[in-house]
Design brief:
Order of helices and strands: HH
Mean pLDDT: 78
Shape: elongated
Radius of gyration: 15 Å
Number of strands: 0
Largest sheet: none
Distance between the termini: 16 Å
Helix content: 40-55%
Strand content: under 5%
Low-confidence stretches: 9-23
Oligomer: single chain
Length: about 80
Amino acid sequence: MIRVKTAALSAALLFFTVPGAAPMAAGNPLLSPSTLPFGAPPFDKITDADYLPALQTGMQQQLREIDAIAANPAKP
């Protein structure tokens, strides 16, 4: 079941990939740790182009976590 969901999410990532877009775009405020109180993002520095790379990066991280859980041979 988990493998099927992982495959579906991977396909979704490929569908939403923009040619030439770097997943870890330099200077993307959504991909950098915030220095603001409570870890709030710097909304005044975020542009529309920052969202797609940040979402792709987050989904890739989640897929790696799911794969690590699915591949873990230890009993729950």
